[in-house]
Amino acid sequence: MTRKDYVAIAEAMMAARADVSNQAISPKMALKFAEDRIASALAADNPRFDRERFLTACRRGEVAS
User: Fold this and answer.
1) Is the pLDDT of residue 11 over 80?
2) How far apart are CA 2 and CA 36, in angstroms?
3) Which residue ranges make up each domain of the chain?
């Protein structure tokens, strides 16, 4: 991972935290949005990135092989 990956993850988490703090959405929905933002950043960086596999791993806590 590079610095820009870490920045993208931090920005996604900050946006999710702001959404919850502003009571714009529930914490559960904010987490889903953060996962989606991170997946988008990773997909933009790597054309072979498997977005669905990543989101499944985030939401179920397991990685398919």
Assistant:
1) yes
2) 19
3) 3-60
What's the pLDDT tens digit per position in 16-52?
888 888 887 888 888 888 899 899 988 988 999 999 9
In Å, how far are 17, 25, 58 from 63, measured between CA atoms? 26, 28, 8
SS3 33: helix
Q: How far apart are the first and last CA of the chain?
A: 21
Contact 47, 25 (CB under 8 A): no
Dihedrals phi, psi of 48, to nearest 5 degrees: -90, 0
Tell how far CA 8 is from the center of its chain.
9
Taking the whole predicted model, whether its pTM rises above 0.85 is answered as: no
Token reading at 40? 């988008």
